[in-house]
Amino acid sequence: MSKHWVALASAFVVGTLGSLIAAFMYNRHKKKLFNMLTDYVLIGHVSGLNIFPVKSMKGVSVKEMECTQVGGRLNEMEDRHFMVVNENTGKFLTARQYPKLITVSTEVRVSLLTLLFRKLKQDGLDCGDEIGNFLCQYLDTTDKIRVLYYVKNLYSERDVVPEESWLLGSVPKIRDPVSHFIQQCPYLAICESTVNDLNSRLSSEDKVDMRSFRPGIEIRGPKPYDEDVWGELKITDVTFTCYRPCTRCVITTIDPDTGIRRQNNQPLKLLREYRKVPEKLHKIYGDSPAFGVYMGVTNKGTIRVGDPVFARYKNHPF
Questions:
Q1: Distance CA 117, CA 104 (A)
Q2: Fewer C-beta within 10 Å: the chain N or C terminus?
Q3: Global pTM value
Q4: Counting beta carbons within 10 angstroms of the beta carbon of residue 242, is it exposed (0 to 12), middle (13 to 18) or buried (19 or more)?
Q5: In angstroms, rounded to a whole number, what is the distance separating the alpha carbons of residues 146 and 99?
Q6: What is the DSSP letter of 106?
């Protein structure tokens, strides 16, 4: 091969390699900019805190909450510490299958779980036949039902953060050694203004309140749907990483007072019209609308109603 062709080939290789390196550096810089967070800024205050001792049953409003890796806690009451399951299949049951579960009040005190079904009350259930039969009676079902109680040392390890394809950006991988009976992430936060904006679009007969969305942390101050662009939250010394939007299902259509689904499918029908996730995420979420944000704790501690809330913003939604 002549020196001329060798020189051309060498130049081609060097040029190609340089282009690849430049492209790699550009993409890395672009990704870094895409996921860059602002400094913390004051956005509002905690207006409500809720703990849901039994998955899909009523929450308990509290004034303060200890934030652990596995969820909120106040004394003996812990978030999603119990759940209802089908004894034959082992599958967990929620208000999707039994809407009336949402009307069951719960309380944990002196190591006793108390369930109140309107005028029926049962104390100290042992998570055996007694509670199963009681629930079957209230839910009017012949299915065999049991209640599971979370035990700390039993194996329940799982990733807190979902696949990267579920997000437009990237978040740090955090693995919890334990987890309660929580379907996605230990914490869900929603702004009051987000619910208010939804109600401004609904008819007077279809208006809803926070109970339809079951957040652990309610925040007053930010503009509607501010949750979409949160990267991190800080309340006192507690820090949260925002992992993914909360996508909504038929549970939002259940009246929390009666346990009856609304025939017109509101507010889910309206949310599907204006709160669908970006097209890139349709393969994951389908037509499920986003409303609120799931979070995990990166620094534990106690938060209280009235505490100031600080946020670090992403430069993109979701």
A1: 5
A2: N
A3: 0.80
A4: buried
A5: 17
A6: E
Cα separation values, 144 from 141, 158, 168, Å: 8, 28, 42
State whether residue 221 is helix, strand or coil. coil
Dihedral, 264, 256, 251, 129 alpha carbons, nearest 10: -130
- The answer to whether residue 152 sits within a structural domain is yes
pLDDT digits (tens, 9 = 90+) for 201-260: 999 999 999 999 999 999 999 999 999 999 999 999 999 999 889 999 999 999 999 999
Percentages helix, strand, coil for the chain, rounded to the nearest 5? 25, 35, 40
What CATH number is given to the structural domain containing 226?
2.40.33.20
Length reported for the chain: 318
What are the pLDDT digits (tens) for 126-146?
A: 456 777 787 888 888 888 877
Strands (E), the chain: 41-51, 60-62, 64-68, 71-74, 77-78, 82-86, 92-93, 105-109, 112-117, 120-122, 145-149, 158-159, 175-176, 187-191, 217-220, 230-235, 238-247, 290-299, 301-304, 308-313
- On whether residue 21 sits in a domain, the answer given is no
Strands of 238-313, DSSP E: 238-247, 290-299, 301-304, 308-313
Stated as kind and residue range, the H or E segment containing 131 is helix 129-139
| Dist CA 105 CA 116 (whole Å) | 5
The answer to whether the beta carbons of residues 263 and 300 sit under 8 Å apart is: no
Domain that holds residue 236: 41-313
122 is written with which tokens?
A: 């049962």
Would you give the DSSP letter of residue 236?
T
Prior bond of 308 cis (ω within 30°): no
Q: Is 212 a member of any domain?
A: yes
Q: Are 184 and 159 in contact (CB under 8 A)?
A: no
